[in-house]
Amino acid sequence: MTPLPLSIAFAHLRARKRQTAVSIGGVMLGVAIFIGIGGMMNGFHSYFLSQLVETNPHIVITDEIREAAPQPLALLHPDGAVEVRRVLPRDPVRGITGAAAILDALNAMDGVAAAPSLVGQIILRHAGRDYQITGIGVDAPREVRVTDIVHDMVEGSFDALASNPNGVLIGRQLAEKMGVALGDSVVAATTTGAQANLKIVGVFHTGIDAEDQYWGILPLARQQSMQGKPRVVNEIHIRLAEIARSIPFAQAIERRWGFKSAPWEESYARVLDVFALQDKIMFFTTAAILVVAGFGIFNVISTIIMEKSRDIAIMRSIGMPSADVLAIFVIEGMVVGVIGMILGWLAGWGLGALLHMVPAPTGNASDRLPVKLTSELFATASVIALLSAVGAAWLPARKAARADPLSIIRGAA
Amino acid sequence: MSVVLEARGLTRVLPGPQPTTLVSDVDASFEAGSFTAITGPSGSGKSSLLYLLGLLDPPTRGDVLIEGVSTRPLDNEARGRIRLKHFGFVFQFHFLLRELSVLDNVTLPMRQLGRLSTAATRARAFDLLSSLDMAAEARKAPEELSGGQRQRVAIARALANDPRFVLADEPTGALDTKNGAAVFAIFRRLADESRTVIVVTHDEGLARLTQRAIHIVDGRVAT
């Protein structure tokens, strides 16, 4: 036999179909918006990170040293009151010393690919105007193993760098700003006074402004000669087969060779912080919708309790325990919450599908808004919806359970 | 006949800045199979006495004994369990649950007690409705019934768990004379079945149909 509180709860809800439907609609809307908008945020984050992470190396070793070497005095008296102030870390102006050995060691490891690079400022001159960019000197055959930028080429090819010692790859936005196209030549200069004519052998589009406007990729040897640093490497780019290993692997590298070794999470910490902030804003905004839906449930349950005070009195008078009276109205809230939640799952999934049909403003006509619906989104929305529904029902239900049946019976007489 | 329900020095005072005494120092005893009317003028405390006897209201002083056992130490929930098993209540207004059918209303106390199977519960509810000439209305909603019919359904619900005590508070108050007399006839029959029936009424004519009348004035037993 169906438990009595359950039967009565369903009977109450059936008798108030319209109010019940509105309450269910409120929960459904909240859950759907939470899932739909959350899915879009997730999709955007994933897209953005994949663009960043796949275009760039997973770990970058630079010619910086984070911490100063331990001072002999402190080493000599480790427990003594020794304080050496203003000790600066060594500044290796000539790049990463022993880069070739480091590269050999890294490339010998399983699931690790490493490539040398020299990064330095370059000024491109064209049509009487200067454009300051970050010149990235790469060893093309090795660089393609550590970044996916080869897939972002919209004109020319990455491989052209290997066969053209004076070639340069620039972003599409920079090419448009300069008014140059594939095959054009530009003058490149550095702060050392070196100058060279570079030929545009490729145009890329990563979708990230900082890269598309301010990056120029050229052969390592050309960059070394222009920067006046022959055979110098100031960055080593690393790609891992397992990206999840990036932080411990970077730490291990730094411990072994002493040079700053930044995993992508550190390089894009600000981006990740912004994403975390966006997630929080999204969470509180959409959770607020579910809380508002909870007020709808509160309203319905309160109304039912007010209307049903005589029923409550008679049930209490025949001996129904207060816990069962409480259960009736909490079940009503839960039923509204559960039905709203399930409908919200479907509507959220539909909303996600709809959003995924909207063109994305990436410049590529076939791109659609990225939407990533995860089980965590569904679970979080469900937990908030159910807590909101049960909480909203609990307050009036508790009042009903505590009601004195006699005062109601006396009042009715 | 043995005394099965007993009031000893029963007093009920409503607390407040000016406490109100509803029932004052009432002693009364009720035998199995007795049919008693509690009468008195409006506001005399007859309903309050009935609620005290039915364990719906805790006394301020005094005690209610069931077969000689004190109910004073019992908390609200324990009193509720005793009401569920041993008491059947009929009020002036039927208090049927509008969303449930007549049959479901009658099954309510049995389902709460959980002693019978689903089939047995329904069969007993049908039997009770049949005994009150209401079997044909079993599937109907309470709103489809007349006042007299609703009160008979309320009586059927009060009898659902086969209570030893049937307590009724002005059960004919909302009925015409004919229906009122019919309801009293049912109570008479219940008493003949060895149940202890106590009915609050202000109708002296109906009170004369009972075996005994306790007259209450200002919360005290007058006769």
Structural write-up:
The complex is a heterodimer of chains A (413) and B (223). The model of chain A has no long low-confidence stretch (mean pLDDT 87). The longest helix of chain A is centred in the N-terminal third of the chain and has 39 residues. In chain A, helix 2 crosses helix 14 and helix 12 packs across helix 14. Helix content of chain A is 55%, strand content 16%. Chain A is elongated and about 100 Å long. Chain A folds into 2 domains: 191 residues, no CATH class; 168 residues, no CATH class. Chain B is of the alpha/beta class and 223 residues long. Chain B has 7 helices and 10 strands. Chain B has one domain: P-loop containing nucleotide triphosphate hydrolases (Rossmann fold). In chain B, the strands form 2 sheets. Chain B has a 6-stranded mixed β-sheet with strand order 6-7-8-3-9-10, sandwiched between helices. In chain B, helix 3 crosses helix 4 and helix 3 packs parallel to helix 5. Classes of the chains: A alpha+beta (413), B alpha/beta (223). At the A-B interface, helix 1, helix 13 and helix 16 of A face helix 2 and helix 3 of B.
Please give the order of strands in the largest beta sheet of chain B: 6-7-8-3-9-10
Shape of chain A: elongated
Q: What number of domains of chain B?
A: 1
Q: Note the quaternary state here.
A: heterodimer
Structural class of chain A: alpha+beta
Q: What is the makeup of the main sheet of chain B?
A: 6 strands, mixed
What is the highest CATH level, the class of chain B? Alpha Beta
- What structural category characterises the helix and strand content of chain B? alpha/beta
Q: For the report, how would you describe the main beta sheet of chain A? A: 6 strands, mixed, barrel
- Major sheet: arrangement of strands of chain A: 2-3-8-5-7-6
Strand content of chain B: 25-35%
Q: If helices are DSSP runs of H or I spanning 4 or more residues, what is the number of helices of chain A?
A: 16
How confident overall, as mean pLDDT of chain B? 91
